[in-house]
Design a protein that fits this description.
The structure is a single chain. By secondary structure, the protein is mainly alpha-helical. The protein has one domain (about 1-85). The protein contains three helices and no strands. The two termini are about 25 Å apart. The model has no long low-confidence stretch (mean pLDDT about 90).
């Protein structure tokens, strides 16, 4: 989807909302504790809570405004990404 926005002339940024700690491909749901991962990440030290993720989104917005002079911003997110389309700041 980002490639299509970019191909149509929009400056496009993909943010690493997982902070380098995504769920591994082909993870078996029965073997995965989603709440544990959200609260502490894979190593217990990399949470994926609003308090941890919102600053990543705010930094991206700040970068778009200050480094690129962007005045209007649109966002698209699915699943985990949808909840951070409008961070509290």
């Amino acid at each position: 989807m980002a490639d299509q926005f970019a191909a149509n002339g929009y400056l496009t940024m993909i943010i690493d909302l997982y902070n380098g700690d995504p769920v591994a491909l082909n993870t078996v749901a029965a073997d995965f504790d989603l709440m544990k991962w959200l609260e502490g990440g894979s190593n217990g030290k990399n949470p994926h809570t609003a308090e941890a993720v919102d600053p990543i989104v705010v930094a991206a917005i700040t970068s778009l405004k200050e480094e690129y002079g962007i005045k209007k911003i649109g966002s698209v997110g699915y699943c985990f990404g949808a909840k951070v389309c409008f961070p509290s700041f």
